[in-house]
Design a protein that fits this description.
The structure is a homodimer of 229-residue chains.
Chain A (H helix, E strand, L loop, with lengths): L10 H10 L6 H19 L4 E2 L1 H8 L3 H9 L5 E2 L3 E3 H11 L6 E6 L3 H8 L2 H4 L2 E8 L8 E2 L2 E5 L3 H8 L3 E4 L3 H14 L3 E4 L12 E4 L2 H9 L8
Parallel strand pairs in A: 4-5, 4-8, 5-7, 8-9, 9-10
Antiparallel strand pairs in A: 1-3, 2-3, 6-7
The structure holds a DNA duplex (22 and 22 nucleotides).
Amino acid sequence: MLQCTGRPFNLLQVHYISILMKPQPPDIVIGRLPMYLRALEAMLADDIDITSSYALGKRLGISSAQIRKDLSHFGDFGKQGTGYDIRYLVEQLRIILQLNQEWEVVVIGAGHVGQALVYYPGFADSGFKIVGMFDVDPEKIGEEHNGIKVQALNDMVPIIKRDGIRIAMITTPADAAQEIAESLIDAGIISILSYAPLPLNVPDDIHVQYVDPISKLQHMTYYLNREDD
Amino acid sequence: MLQCTGRPFNLLQVHYISILMKPQPPDIVIGRLPMYLRALEAMLADDIDITSSYALGKRLGISSAQIRKDLSHFGDFGKQGTGYDIRYLVEQLRIILQLNQEWEVVVIGAGHVGQALVYYPGFADSGFKIVGMFDVDPEKIGEEHNGIKVQALNDMVPIIKRDGIRIAMITTPADAAQEIAESLIDAGIISILSYAPLPLNVPDDIHVQYVDPISKLQHMTYYLNREDD
DNA sequence: AACTGTGAAGTTTTTCACAGCC
DNA sequence: GGCTGTGAAAAACTTCACAGTT
């Protein structure tokens, strides 16, 4: 897709392209920005105004070099000899992550997980507003949790379309997740956070992240009782 | 620590060591085994008995080479020309991950997240038995959720010690998490799954994993509205 | 003196590609 | 022909180390 001709790349082409389009920052780096952001916000709450890559790294348990390299993908935010103005860096990170706006989110599934999500204040605090909750179960439809009414799954697609919602969290049983993901995408959802323990099959332009506590427990059981390091 | 002398490594030493102790499989590989296990179990449920690294990779959205390389750290489980006997591979993965036993787990925090955990059947299905729930709130102590009574946080350490529990899930507010982690470690907990959005400071021999939906949403908002690929 | 931003070096992880076996 | 297991190659990621700035 990047090629203009049918021939393979040559150095001149690569150079030409590299002038036109900067390489994208690695996804793994983007995945660390939220943790930087949160640690910096915690520092502000502790009345710290300035920090260094060393201090931040210590707090997060990672190297200062990694923090500097990560940030360097997006700009020059620090001052030599001084460090980073936290307020400014927070602002910049919020721009990079597009958090300088409120994002509307819908929750699919009104079971215990869905309920835990709508009651968790962290989403609102971080700029994610849960605006709807959907379930198939007629018993649950009409219930209200933390002020959010459970609506019928049948109404999901038109409501998401009408309100232009882009983010959804799936908390349904695994066997319903794939079909629901397809409806969501059809409705215009682009980012899905799935609590269902199975890989969703989605087009390349849809982003999916998984929350999977069981896999994480199983990862840790590997190390239990193993004294061989 | 690996060195026997004060001098730096030399090739002979490295070779000597490599005979004595096989290199540990990378942690990133161990982290993928639970997902292989789950996909294989799903295949069994679909009455599939045999698979190949290609079929499994397709299902998981990863390359066949990665699956073969990952598994090769632990043994030779496949047959050339045929593939893998799923039942056998599942059994082997369960041995590797030490899932051929039931693990007792405690939940700290009896709020919405803690409740969602005790009501989620997936833990029991995967061999994790939630045996206790603890909270500071006197209003919550004594409540019962899915048959599990909320106990006083003060009783936590002795109970964990008495029962020899090794795994805990923290669902308390962030500001309590560090202190609780320290108590847990004191009580003998070795593996912690934390839902608190802050890095826990723990000794090297303690394993911690984090569940952090907000970071994952923030990771995805980076890509929203960006058509520059 | 303290700290950033960054090429270069080093390490880890993934992919390639193929000999060997069923 | 189909598939595994694996060295070798490639790519990705992290750390080093230092010039340059405050």
